[in-house]
Amino acid sequence: MRALANFYREREPAILGGGFILSLILAWQSVPSLVSLPQGISLFFTTPVEVIKAFHQLVVQNQIQSHFYVSAVEFIVGLALAILVGLPLGLVMGRSKILDAMLDPFVTAFNATPRLIFLPLLILWFGIGIWSKITIVFVGAVFPLLINTYEGVKNVDRVLVNVVRSFGANEWQTMKTVVLPNSVPYIVVGLRLAIGRALLGVVVGEFFAASRGLGYMIANAATNYKVDVVFVGVTIFMGLSLILTYFVKKLESRLSRWRPETAKNF
Amino acid sequence: MVPCIQASDVTLTFRPKDREAVTAINGLTLEVARGEFVSIVGPSGCGKSTFLNVLLGLLKPDKGEIQLNGKRISGPGEERAMVFQEFGLLPWRTVLANVELGLELKGVAADTRRKRARGLIELVGLTAFENHYPHELSGGMKQRVGLARALVTEPEVLLMDEPFAALDAQTRDLMQTELLQIWDRAKKTVIFVTHSIEEAAYLSDRVVIMSARPGKVKEVLRIGLPRPREYEMRLSPGFNEIKSRIWSTLKEELVTRIGGDGAQR
Ligand SMILES: Nc1ncnc2c1ncn2[C@@H]1O[C@H](COP(=O)(O)OP(=O)(O)OP(=O)(O)O)[C@@H](O)[C@H]1O
Ligand SMILES: [Mg+2]
User: What is the Cα–Cα distance from A166 to A173, expressed in whole angstroms?
Assistant: First the structure.
């Protein structure tokens, strides 16, 4: 008895959180056996067991894998391009008055506009294949990365810049030893936002115009009233978002080992 | 003999955007001999830090120049190093990596600079902490790191901007003693900015008193106390007299500043 109480106390949040989700799933599962649903509703209703069955079916048919692969490529390539462009551009814009003045109106205008507006145009230009999705992921993710990196550069401690300059550091060395490390927490925030925008780009892009991908799978299933398949897709996206959030957290705590504990969770 | 440092008629005006220009120093002239320990005191805002930054080569004067060993200073150089007021340690670097900074930027090979840095960390008594991050250190320890970092490139001139201002009284006394020992052994030229008259008198060969902004040299006092300095000297009547002489000169400037700050601009 005592051991059981201890076991509970040590894992209280996990037990409560997991228990709540489990009971919701059980309640959901038992709805059809408790109430008889009118036909109009039961057509759009599904149960967890059905969802799992559908998932299994899709895996056996190799469907999930191929849709997942397409979405993953769009997400990864788009985000990688956004990092490759946004990060260096944020750094140089933060350091160079000339580039800042030149690019600022452009960046501000694009950032103020909901980027999904460009989707129809991108589909016209790049077709319904993966490249229209890669570009929409890119335009969504690049601005939060660029702007947060820029903020980080602008917030660099003047004294620390003077320290390295007094040792004869050139601009490149100043960037490497002070400006970049100082911007890391900002860049991580930018990355977190960028990941959210990138996922949104993949889903909406595939809803809108695609013949493959998880977003397409969801939209297509909904059109054909396959509610269980819709739930499979939604669950996969939830799982992916959780995993990505976890990795960003990991990255964050790894990169901020040097910070006092209290400042870690911003 | 050429003096180590020769500042002649140094004048510098800050011109910040959208704000009025401020002349921080105006016609500052000063000579410092090799191996000399000179302190600078003066009212807050009179341009002490500005002067050190010109010496360091981070700021260019509008008028006048500073020569180091007969050569005009035009930028940072390895003969000079600064110990910064709020330590200026890179928070994401360990003690060892902070001390290595100067050598790393000069492109010294990793094992050589590690060895040199370890030597200096030992000198300031922080060997047990070489892998700690700055936020894990006390104020006194941080400033020891700042000192080790400045010494690592073996500069001839050590510039110190209120290095002990953030420390408690006992740590400060301890650091002063350590600094004098290091100075005595390494024979560096030291320019030491402080707000503490006692500190200036105790450490220095000469104390420079600056006038209120725009700053220039108002008076230079030679401190005749014998070397090596002993803590007990601070209790002697002679020491008190030195202190009160510095204070009375400084007081005139503090009054000018408080009374005439608005009118000056
Ligand atoms: N980067 C800057 N831009 C504009 N004005 C500046 C700048 N740095 C210093 N000043 C001004 O120049 C004057 C001298 O500043 P400085 O920091 O040299 O004074 P200080 O003697 O070191 O003062 P304290 O004893 O308080 O440290 C001040 O009025 C300050 O406001
Ligand atoms: Mg100052």
Answer: 12
> From the CB of B18, is ligand 1 less than 6 Å away?
no
Which ligand 1 atom lies nearest to the CA of residue B52? Answer: 18
- The backbone torsions φ and ψ at residue B66, rounded to the nearest 5 degrees and listed phi first, read -120, 130
Residue B201: name the closest of B247, B157, B252, B159 by CA.
B247
pTM: 0.82
Output Rg (C-alpha) for chain A, integer angstroms: 24
pLDDT level of residue A264 (50, 70, 90 thresholds): very low
Residues of B with CB below 8 A from A172's CB?
none
| Distance (Å) from CA B34 to ligand 2 centroid | 24
Q: How far apart are CA A81 and CA A117, in angstroms?
A: 20
Mutate to test the interface with A, among B53, B86, B92, B137 (most CBs of A within 10 A): B92
User: And the tokens for B238?
Assistant: 């002679």
Q: Is B49 in the pocket of ligand 1 (CB under 6 A)?
A: yes
Distance from the alpha carbon of residue A145 to the mean position of ligand 2, in angstroms: 36
By DSSP bridging, strand B63-68 and strand B37-41 are unpaired
Residue A133, amino acid: K
Which stretches of chain A are assigned E, i.e. beta strand? none
> How many C-beta neighbours within 10 Å does residue B138 have?
12
B16 lines ligand 1 (CB under 6 A): yes
Answer left, alpha or beta for residue A35, where phi above 0 means left and psi between -120 and 50 means alpha.
Answer: beta
| Coil vs helix vs strand at B100 | helix
Rounded mean pLDDT of B1-20? 91
- What's the pLDDT band for B257 if we cut at 50, 70, 90? low
Architecture of domain A49-264: Orthogonal Bundle (1.10)
pLDDT digits (tens, 9 = 90+) for A132-179: 999 999 999 999 999 999 999 999 999 999 999 999 999 999 999 999
DSSP three-state, residue B64: strand
Residue B108's alpha-carbon distances to A57, A178, B78, B103, B115, in angstroms, are 62, 19, 13, 5, 11
Residues, CB-to-ion distance under 5 Å, ligand 2: B 49
Residue nearest to atom 30 of ligand 1 (CA): B45
* pLDDT value at B221 more than 70: yes
Distance CA B69, CA A122 (A): 65
CB spacing of A162 vs B106 below 8 angstroms: no
Q: What is the ipTM of this complex?
A: 0.88
Domain ranges of chain A: 49-264
The predicted-structure confidence for B125-136, as pLDDT tens digits, reads as follows 899 999 999 999
Q: Residues A94-102: contacts with CB within 8 Å, 24+ apart? A: A94/A149, A94/A150, A94/A151, A94/A152, A94/A153, A94/A154, A94/A179, A94/A183, A95/A153, A95/A171, A95/A175, A95/A179
